[in-house]
Amino acid sequence: MNSDNINLLRKCFRWYHFNYQKKIKLPYRFREREFGYKDFNGIMHRHISINTEKEFFALLLKEIPRSIYYSVSFYEYPYLPMDQKNWKGSDLVFDIDLKDLTTKCRNHHDFWFCRDCHAYGSLPAPKNCLYCNSGNIQKYEWICEKCMEMLKKEVVKLVDMLEMDLGINRKNIKVYFSGNVGFHISVEETVFENFSQKERIEIVDYLTLRGMDLNTIKRSLSFFTEVPSLLTKRIRKLYDAIINSKIDSMDEIGVKIDPVVTIDLHRIFRMPYSLHDESGLMKKEVDIEDCDPLSESVVFSDEKVKIFVYYSPSIKIMGQTYRSFKRESINIPLYLAVYLVAKGLAVVKRKC
Length: 352
What we know:
- By secondary structure, the chain is of the alpha+beta class.
- It has helices spanning 3-20, 53-63, 106-109, 145-164, 197-208, 214-221, 233-243, 259-263, 293-296, 334-342, and strands spanning 35-38, 44-48, 67-71, 73-75, 87-90, 92-97, 111-114, 120-122, 137-140, 173-177, 182-187, 268-270, 284-285, 304-312, 315-317, 320-322, 325-333, 346-348.
- Among the domains are: 3-99 and 145-206 and 255-296, DNA primase, PRIM domain; 210-252, no CATH class.
């Protein structure tokens, strides 16, 4: 990323940290967590311990992090190397991301982009750029309204399962738009904090129905003359759907989560209300039934900024649909300029 782009992003992130630092909420039991951040040179800093809010706000203003994270686990010594921290428990967390969904619309808007010559094209991406032969190719998952609705449906499915099947109180389930192309779900202050990695694997297997074959289940269930009364509401519903051939595959039943995120006890999560380094959007807690993440998570103004865009598919943000841009200089709102620059698809135009 060139210096003009870095300067724009750093200036915008500094403004946000200075004016809205108290929106970035420390998690409960924060003194027992590890913190980390990525700076604008791309360097990751970890094993940081925070003891007071004042100390945390000072870090925000001094370092101007491009991303800031906290551990999902609690430790006796959060500032020590991983093998010396002494694990005390973990939040139960989930990540529902666009990469884990299959939607037809993605064939129309996902693309590859060459970091060297700025060529682009439809997926699948070539191993080397078709124009300059560079291997510096990046694949982009672009989010449209249909994608967002699919993501939200998966979140609703997951929350229902956590409540109905695992007996988790809704007040202990927090749903966040990640600030990019997915949602984070965090289960806090429950008995699941003490679950081992093996037990979390079992939760993942149950929620995703990973490793289960639909035909095998149908054959097994055919021996039942009635649904066992002890089955949960969800399982009874699935039983009926399977027996009556209302579903064609297990993908229609299991929730699409990233299993690694839930299983990894040493995972660090983006802090709520901090900015995502790949979009400039805020990670924000949302009402999943009634939210517009690409409006609610915008923090920058609509002041016009001139940038040169190499390529960008159409996008709806702040309630307005912007057309596709292809190798052109444009004046657009600051929030969209930051979004495209952060993704590496545009450069700031210097004033003469």
